Target: Endonuclease/exonuclease/phosphatase domain-containing protein
Amino acid sequence: MFGKNLDVDTGRGLLLYIDKQLDASQVQMNTEFQENLFIKINLNQSDQLLLGLIYRTPSNRSQEYTKQLNTLTTEACSKGYSHILIMGDYNFPEINWDSWNSPGESTESNEYKFLENLQENFLFQHVTRPTRWRGTNTPHTLDLILTNEENMISNLEYQSPLGKSDHCTMKFDFSCYTNIKSKPKIIKLFSRGNYIKIKEELDNIKWSELLQKENDINENWRSVLSIIQDMDKKYIPTKERKQIEVRKEYNKIRNQVKSRVNKLKREYEKNLSEKAKENPKAIWSYIKSKTKTKEGIGDLHLDPEDTKSDKTEDNRKKAKLLVEYFSSVFTKELDGVVPSPTPVLVTKVMSNQKIKEEVVLKYLNALKIDKL
Model:
């Protein structure tokens, strides 16, 4: 937890909750602006996120105050962070964020100077709907989300206010990559628990006095739960289960193999496409192998000679129809003694042929394998 101006009467106070698994530390800014809080979070490799929280009071309309705010924004953007996310209640109700225009034609107004500073620092503003409304007052966009890249924010949701606040809460996803610090998992060793001691302590508790009928049932349950948790801490040992380094090494090698397989697959598919005209059977065979649904035998007419006859989808009937159809083209031989062929008189004997290996190879090379 990071906070500022929480124990003093000056300002509204700022508070940021950061997950313990993130490597975060507070950043002190040089610009003197009362309500600002900046946190640095280490990301992958040498990338870092600068997370800022700002409150600008609407009661101070001086140009010096706005100049301090703009100087603070410029300082944040000039520190060289790869990722920048600045949020807060800026209290500029007159700015039109659809067109990025300030009211009036003056180039000296606080709104104009603020917009100019955002553009000079190449920041993007992502809030497009009113964030504050009260009664019949006109709703205004007072709370802003600023980043140094346009696509860093996604899934922005405008949700109900907290408590008595008249500002909505906002929920969004921020795109970045970071290594989460692995926390050892605590596991309980119930098989090694000292259940004799647990029984002794439970026997010494005066349950009738502890769980009285006059007490609320929730109060009695909290009392029992407190005793169970106390016994658990005292008599059930625990141990840390750290992440095994072998698993990390396995994941690394697995990813390398997967990357290599994908690369070889792309090369194979490219080779198939380049030789599609020469060998179309290969590419069609590959496409068929990747097809999720395989074609079967469609419905067949019960009478193959009549295309208007009923069809069947029964597999047994299909098999019978196919057997009858293919067996009908077989030659039916007569039963009995196989007849002898009529002798043919040879009048000219063919001389011995000499077939050279080169000739065979020539004709084999001339074959079109896609036509086989």
Q: What stands out?
A: The chain has three domains: 2-174, 185-241, 244-275.
